[in-house]
Amino acid sequence: MNHFEQGMQQNPANFVPLTPLTFLDRIKDVYPDYEALIYKKRIYTWKQVYERCTRFASALSKIGIGKGDVVSVMAANTPELFESLYRSHDRRGGEYH
Question: I want to staple 81 with a disulfide (CB 3.0 to 4.6 A). Which of 4, 19, 62, 75 is the partner?
Fold first, then answer.
């Protein structure tokens, strides 16, 4: 172990395990104004992506999607597909296909 690694064991201050779902929650706080998605002439920051994903998940919830439900998305490789992937089942308990 070199002197840079001494005293750097994993702890809540220096290590945050990220899943695809927790990644978005974290990156919108760490890099809110960085470009996240670029598709043709559309550019979204991480904050915008988070807000769009949250609105999508909220819309699913409002139409009754919840625990045990299956959400299927058939879409081209667009920002909307990315957004549906990140939030459609987050905290709702549904499945994504």
Answer: 75
CA atoms within 13 A on the CB side of 74: 0
H or E segment to which residue 22 belongs: helix 20-30
**Residue 33, helix vs strand vs coil:** coil
Contact 34, 46 (CB under 8 A): yes
Domains and CATH numbers, the chain: 20-96 (3.40.50.980)
Instruction: Give yes or no for residue 60 having a pLDDT over 90.
Output: no
Residue 68 Ramachandran class (φ > 0 left, ψ -120 to 50 alpha, else beta): left
Amino acid 32: pLDDT: 96
Q: Which residues pair with 42 in a beta bridge?
A: 39
Using CA atoms, how far residue 95 sits from 17, 59, 65, 84, in Å, is 22, 15, 10, 12
Sequence-separated (6 or more) residues with CB below 8 Å from residue 30: none
